[in-house]
């Protein structure tokens, strides 16, 4: 007797589960002022977003390709890395340390322009590691891997541009 029905205890509007990111879950869409109310139905907004994403991806792949080219085609660099294997292991350490640090710094990587700095750090460390790995392989195998990667990325870009929302 005297107890309110269960439906009276439920809020009428969908309330966010978490009001702060530092709690157990991700930030709520409803509480986050960084997510302005936009119309994703607008084709021009979607296309601008896709252009930005693929511009960033293209820049990342270009940097990685430049590192791979240096570590593959410059005989002195390739020879140095092969003679000093510790540089190979250092590249793994640099990448994993930067990955862990950036994973732990949520505020840093979620604010503009620091998100671009974080992405640049991660791209450079990964590119350095990939370049070091490429120096231990024959040039033909590296060129084939780069070609396959470029073909797959180009295909994904073409597919994404053809998909209607």
TrEMBL record:
Keywords recorded for this protein, A-Z: Membrane, Receptor, Transmembrane, Transmembrane helix
Annotated localization: Membrane
Keyword Transmembrane: yes
UniProt GO BP: negative regulation of apoptotic signaling pathway
Membrane topology: Multi-pass membrane protein
GO cellular component terms attached to this protein's record: endoplasmic reticulum; Golgi apparatus; membrane
Sequence intervals crossing the membrane: 53-74, 86-104, 116-136, 142-161
Family: Belongs to the BI1 family.
Protein name: Glutamate ionotropic receptor NMDA type subunit associated protein 1
Provenance organism: Chelydra serpentina (Snapping turtle)
